[in-house]
Amino acid sequence: MAEMEAVRPAVDVPDAWRKTEVARDPQRLHPMDFLEALFTNLLEIHGDRGFGDDPAMYCALASYEEQPVMVICNRKGRTTKDRMKYRFGSPEPEGYRKALRCMKLAEKFGRPVITFLDLAGAYPGLGAEERGQGEAIAKNLIEMAGLRVPTIAVITGEGGSGGALALAVADRVLILENAIYSVISPEGCASIMWKDAGKRQQAAEALKYTAADVKRLGCVDEVISESEPSIAENRNPVLEQVNAALRRHLQDLQGREVAALLEVRYAKFRNIAQFYTAAQ
Fold this sequence. Notes:
The protein is an alpha/beta fold. The protein is built from 13 helices and 8 strands. Strands 1, 2, 3, 4, 5, 6, 7 and 8 form an 8-stranded mixed beta sheet that branches. It is globular, with a radius of gyration of 19 Å. The model is unreliable at 1-10 (pLDDT under 50).
């Protein structure tokens, strides 16, 4: 019996689940790490001018290689205290309304909008729902689609559900190689499809949410290589790759007329993941 156990093959872990674990690594670089490393003259903007200020959503006027921009990201926190404060990176409706206020401010002054996101989804608490979480996300989707300035979104870890999409209706959507981008978490999908969250690995494969998958489906514009997973010890190579991608896409977008930007942006999101079946 012992010999039989010794030759039994190890359980195969699906690649999608391996990517999920890397994307969720607590040591992975957070969106704020990228902002602090790549941008200067950060001047934070607070409040949604309606209810309050959500600390889980960070918005700031900034400079990118001496060019004025608006940067927006979700905060996650490293310590237990900060993780609780930022609800593990999940914004409330005030956060999305603050983000939208800042996007419109950027539009008024002709500043490109650059967002970074790593969140499993918007905060699902009762208070958030009572204050219009769904409406706030929907408003962001509509308004981002029509912003008259260049927009770039970077998915650095986990991009989940409408909470992530509310920051990612952009001219260019970039994703790190070990990040994921999905309509639902694998645990949530497994709970719905099989009534068993334990089948999360199976759900991860079915969702097709790895960087390679979403690039193939046309949901993102570029996969940014990670020679090593983006954690503190390997930060410089990853930062250089992200910086190079930002520079390249921003330069390209700024050479376009506003009408052309809006037309291409609309067409891209209108046709994401379209499937056609020929009549028999």
